[in-house]
Design brief:
By secondary structure, the protein is α+β, with helices and mostly antiparallel strands. It folds into two domains: about 5-45, no CATH class; about 95-290, Umud Fragment, subunit A. Helices cover about 15% and strands about 20% of the residues. It contains five helices and 13 strands. The longest helix is centred in the first third of the chain and has 29 residues, at about 65-90.
Length: about 300
């Protein structure tokens, strides 16, 4: 290129000309591109008001791009929330509902409870591994377990009556553990007459014969629902029963429950309503048992 031509930058320097009687016009200074005296401040003033140019190679974002970015953010947020929910549900706490009367009057049909999944060692999904437990189930604990005798497999809530090595027996509806009668204020008063157990089949007492003490007379053993035993609880198993002894399918019929299927310990009721109520819609509100909400389970 040849010599750079002079470019005139018009800089309006209003001078009130103090002390003079004539009007001073704007001064115009001319700078050449190769004039070393061009000040950066003059160039900045000249560029005021000019629209900014986009950075080469980075065109402005289109509406499609913005929509795609917003969608990705929503997906990330939703995925994080689902992952957090699954972690809490699997390893910490889980909600359960009560569909049957086997634990009345401690738990009623229509109760919704929160259970501690970590206390007995949470199961890792899709594996047979479980995390270390804080403690083992204790006598008197209400527990959630997943027995293998139900089809389909569902979670069940019962109370621990006997721990491994205990000898349990019922005589005339009174529960004995290791020869001592238990005080059970949580048990619902019986209303049905006693009935004999079947020997074989689902819920039969054939398994009792293996758990009777060595001195027991197996030939004359004829248990009923309210009179049975004594039975010795095997290692790594627990004897579980419902508080409503008339209506509970429990260890009297199905045998001791393996430790590995005991999953959690109910803590409190977070909601309760009467599903059989004749109250008008919405029954979740009109038939709610407000006084039971927040009840700590023992």
């Amino acid at each position: 290129m040849g010599e750079a031509s002079a470019i005139r930058f018009r800089i309006d320097q209003r001078n009130p000309c103090p002390g003079t009687a004539y009007k001073c016009g704007p001064k115009v200074r001319t700078y050449s591109l190769n004039d070393s005296n061009v000040s950066s401040s003059a160039a900045r003033r000249e560029n005021l008001g000019r629209p900014s140019r986009p950075t080469p190679g980075k065109p402005p974002s289109s509406r499609t791009e913005r929509a795609r970015n917003e969608t990705l953010e929503w997906i990330k947020s939703f995925g994080s929330a689902i992952l957090l929910f699954l972690v809490i549900r699997t390893f910490l706490i889980q909600a359960f509902s009560i569909p049957s009367s086997s634990m009345e009057n401690t738990l009623l049909v229509g109760d919704y409870l929160m259970a501690n999944n970590a206390i007995f060692g949470a199961h890792i999904p899709f594996t047979s591994t479980r995390l270390p437990a804080f403690r083992d189930p204790r006598r008197g604990d209400i527990v959630v377990f997943r027995p293998t005798y139900n089809d389909p497999v569902i979670d069940v809530v019962k109370r621990v009556i006997g721990a491994p090595g205990d000898t349990v027996q019922m005589i005339g509806r009174v529960m004995y553990r290791n020869g001592k009668a238990l005080e059970e204020p949580y048990v619902k008063a019986p209303t049905l007459p006693d009935s004999p157990m079947e020997y074989a089949g689902w819920g039969g007492y054939a398994w009792h014969l293996d758990q009777l003490p060595a001195a027991a007379d197996r030939a004359r053993y004829r248990p009923t629902r309210d009179n049975w035993g004594p039975l010795v609880v095997p290692a790594e198993h627990y004897f579980l029963m419902g508080d409503n002894r008339d209506e509970s399918l429990d260890s009297r019929f199905m045998g001791p429950i393996p430790r590995d299927v005991i999953r959690g310990k109910p803590m409190f009721l977070y909601f309760s309503y009467d599903p059989h109520s004749s109250q008008p819609f919405p029954r979740a509100l009109t038939a709610a048992r407000w006084g039971r909400i927040g009840t700590v389970l023992r």
